[in-house]
Amino acid sequence: TPDSGHGIAWDTSGNTYSVLFGAPELVAPRLQGQLIRILRAQAGEAAAPKIVTASAGTTMSQLARDFRDLDYRLARVRRGASSVPGHYVDRLPSDMLSSRHAQARKTMFIQMMLPLILVANEAILEDRRHLLRLISRTKAGGTLSPTNQQWLARLAERYKVRADDFSSLKYRVDAIPPSLALAQAALETGG
Fold it and tell me: Which residues face 29 on adjacent strands?
């Protein structure tokens, strides 16, 4: 968003995310399954992003090969020369935790988490856009439909604020810097 200095764009023709205004936000790995369910629900069957199911024996080298096949390289993403693909890995490679190659583990972790973080931030930003429209409507003297009132109540409950506390909602319903989300994800996984 312009006020946060970050943005994400979804290219439906290529099923990729592009990073705008810097890097997008991340979420902790414990939310990965929930995000995959959100992805499936939001995309619908026709444009569903690819969920890469890593079987119990999938190794880091196999997953790295899959990422290379997608031309998914973090250095290219950082330079803006490439987008993050809309491919989501549903579990860690079998040898990731036992690997002694710290840099390879870190790179793979970021490659696995970044698409999930991007989609989570896009969902948050969509909620923010809707929230700002509702706030604008009420400031102009309009009323909210029962559907919008219910949506606002659910949003406020999720963020643990009152539904009529627009200031707190505007502050809380916003994307998180990707570096912060990655750091939190690494802490929660013991990395």
Answer: none
